[in-house]
Design goal:
heterodimer, A: Rossmann fold, disordered N terminus, B: alpha/beta, Rossmann fold, 14 strands, globular, binds thiamine diphosphate, binds magnesium ion
Chain lengths: ~350, ~325
């Protein structure tokens, strides 16, 4: 990524300085921090995978970080979030710490779910993070139900329910959208349109290529969002959240983004071109925000470098922590299958 | 004449041969066409048969399984691929409520000649939702036939039989063993549905298994041989209908039975076999039928969990020794 960062800086440096910053210095630095943390975390994840420290299915978030950044500011900490298996970045944005996430990837007992979940299944009640779901589309009704519970209890909280463009073709979406609109459930649906579901482009899965239009069949307020810009994501989230909290029911955002890497570590991505990838790398959200801060004199390179160094160290430390932690005992496999402590498992 | 093929290519050949033979056969599923299959089982099929007969679907298991059922009721012979059987859960309505029941509901007016296929079983550290074994689930349903095998030769022959069969079939493969090699004849052949195969003859104990667990059973049998215990190993190949005659015949000879079954223990393939044997070979048994299943839990991610969860040769040897009172 460093390479991309440096290269892009040269290209975009000539661009005219943008209009005056809309948000505080802290806000920009916060967005930069979470995006850089996710990128670094994911790069190290790929490295650890290549060293077989991490196994199984592993889907990284590189390229999509601006969405996670928008999530840190566009909703509250009391709001709930649920997403699919491409979830490391979302979990980090909710406040799960790098140590417990990396340890989970390593399958260690110090992981956020004690080595039970791995890459696809992080959870944290403390952070109102309802998890990574491995079944495409399953979290769409689940997120609707999480929001239903908030409505039932009369809270002001909403549930952000995230899914991929591929998941948008599951029947579960249509059933959920319909009930959510009918019952005015406080759910914010976000489709992270990264253009592909494994090797299948959005264009090949439907007649309707602009996913936000799906909402119109339910009269659900729906709009497209630039997912390469945390500011745009933040604003869209804020607006949608306001609508939902006023009791008017769900909202649907199609956040347009791109995954730089293959679907999972085993996918060589032969179905797309280098040019297409580069087109998005030109708009890399981390590069863009750094340029914005420098050009707009919001923060200095030195301040940015300091954050980078801190995060580099944080992720290094997380890998060390994960490496030095223990695997759970095999017998812990029986833990947490039932709440009942003395459940009589069949063991013969 | 025969040559060495892996399971993936054997399945691929089976599908291609049947599609060449019968226009009404087509393949449908996620990533089966342009990507050549998530596990490359359908490699080259789009090129040979074109997009009319090799069809990429959106991620919509319930929908495309149902489209398969309707097409089968109306004269076609669909092969519906699930990326893994874990995702077929979304399609259970169509498999269980429709494919399995159409013939009965319509009093024979409409059949449903369809093959639902894909890998079943744990495949490493894939955690709870991606590690399930579906033979027991599907075999519980009257109206369905269930095939589960990894031997390249037999699997190819069984797939061809399944495609020609007039009943709906759940066909279970193995993600981890698509690269598993074996001799496959050059000439055309069919392998009968509902017949088990004896993979190893023995006299002291019968070990029954299927799918990738057959390799665990064979490994255990080799090790037991060194200790002077002669194990007969039976590969079920078809789960429903169950070839209980083959098991009964073997138990009459060995008087002892261990079932090695990756599915969960409760109400599964292993309990069905244990029932059949106590019923039909009671007088021949010298020890209770014993089984080695996956643990009665959801499989977590860590390697220690995978080790604890799955049947392995050590567990099988322990079970064999228990029935031999050694
Ligand atoms: C029900 C179901 N079907 C198939 C799969 C296999 N699968 C895993 S991810 C995926 C593609 C999903 O794409 P998308 O929703 O766009 O999310 P992205 O990976 O782009 O984040 C598929 C087909 C699955 N996990 N669950
Ligand atoms: Mg996608």
């Amino acid at each position: 990524m460093a390479e991309v960062l440096e290269k892009k800086k040269k290209v975009t440096k000539k661009a005219p300085a943008k209009a005056k910053a809309k948000y505080s210095k802290k806000q920009y630095l916060d967005w930069f921090t979470i995006m850089y943390r996710i990128r670094k975390f994911e790069e190290k994840t790929l490295y650890a995978y290549s060293k077989q420290k991490i196994r199984g299915f592993c889907h990284v978030y590189i390229g999509q970080e601006a969405i996670a950044a928008g999530l840190t500011s566009g909703i509250t900490k009391d709001d709930k979030v649920v997403t699919a298996y491409r979830q490391h970045g979302i979990a980090l944005s909710r406040g799960l710490d790098s140590n417990s996430c990396m340890a989970e990837l390593y399958g260690k007992s110090t992981g956020c779910v004690k080595g039970k979940g791995g890459s696809m299944h992080f959870f944290s009640k403390e952070h109102n993070y309802f998890g990574g779901n491995g079944i495409v589309g399953a979290q769409i009704p689940i997120g609707t139900g999480i929001a239903f519970a908030e409505q039932y209890r009369g809270s002001k909280n909403l549930c952000v329910t995230m899914f991929g463009d591929g998941a948008a073709r599951q029947g579960a979406l249509y059933e959920s959208f319909n009930m959510a609109m009918t019952w005015k459930i406080p759910v914010l649906y976000i489709v992270e349109n990264n253009k592909y579901a494994m090797g299948t482009s959005v264009e090949r899965t439907s007649n309707v290529h602009e996913l936000y239009k799906i909402g119109s069949a339910f009269d659900m307020p729906s709009e497209p969002v630039d997912g390469m810009d945390p500011e745009a994501v933040h604003e869209a989230l804020e607006k949608a959240a306001k609508h939902i909290r006023s009791g008017k029911g769900p909202y649907f955002l199609e956040i347009n983004t791109y995954r730089y890497k293959g679907h999972s570590v085993s996918d060589p991505s032969k179905y797309r071109t280098k040019d297409e990838l580069n087109e998005y790398k030109e708009k890399d959200p981390i590069v863009v925000i750094v340029n914005k801060m420098i050009d707009g004199k919001i923060a200095t390179q030195k301040e940015i470098d300091k954050i980078k160094t801190e995060i580099d160290n944080e992720i290094e430390a997380a890998m060390k922590f994960a490496d030095e932690s223990d695997y759970p005992l095999g017998s812990e496999l029986y833990d947490d299958n039932y709440v009942q402590k003395d459940y009589p498992f069949i063991t013969d | 004449m025969s040559r060495i093929l892996n399971l993936r290519d054997a399945l691929n050949e089976g599908m291609k041969e049947e599609m060449r033979r019968d226009e009404s056969v087509f393949l449908m599923g996620e990533e089966v066409a342009e990507y050549n299959g998530a596990y490359k089982v359908s490699k080259g099929m789009l090129d040979e048969f074109g997009p009319k007969r090799v069809i990429d679907t959106p991620i919509a298991e319930l929908g495309f399984a149902g489209i398969g059922v309707g097409a089968a009721m109306n004269g076609l012979r669909p092969i519906v691929e699930f990326m893994t059987w874990n995702f077929a859960v979304l399609a259970f309505d169509q498999i269980v409520n429709n494919a399995a029941k159409t013939l009965s509901q319509s009093a024979g007016e409409f059949g449903c000649p369809i093959v639902f296929r894909g890998p079943s079983g744990a495949a490493g550290q894939l955690a709870q939702q991606h590690s399930q074994t579906f033979e027991s689930w599907m075999a519980n349903v009257p109206g369905l036939k269930v095939i589960s095998c990894i031997d390249p030769k037999d699997t190819k022959g069984l797939l061809k039989s399944a495609i020609r069969d007039d009943d709906p079939i759940c066909f279970m493969e193995s993600e981890q063993f698509y690269g598993y090699k074996g001799e496959v004849p050059e000439e055309e052949y069919l392998t009968p549905i509902g017949k088990a195969a004896i993979r190893r003859e023995g006299t002291d104990v019968t070990i029954v298994s299927y799918n990738k667990m057959i390799l665990v059973a064979m490994d255990a049998a080799e090790q037991l041989q060194k200790e002077g215990i002669s194990a007969e190993v039976i590969d079920l190949r078809t789960i429903r209908p169950l070839d209980h005659e083959a098991i009964v015949e073997s138990v009459k000879k060995t008087n002892r039975l261990v079932v090695v079954d990756e599915s969960w223990p409760y109400g599964g393939v292993s309990s069905e076999i244990a029932y059949e044997i106590q019923k039909y070979a009671f007088d021949y048994l010298d020890a209770p039928v014993t089984r080695v299943n996956s643990a009665d839990v959801s499989l977590g991610y860590a390697p220690t969990f995978v080790e604890e969860y799955l049947p392995n040769p050590t567990k099988v040897i322990r079970a064999v020794k228990a029935v031999m009172y050694r």
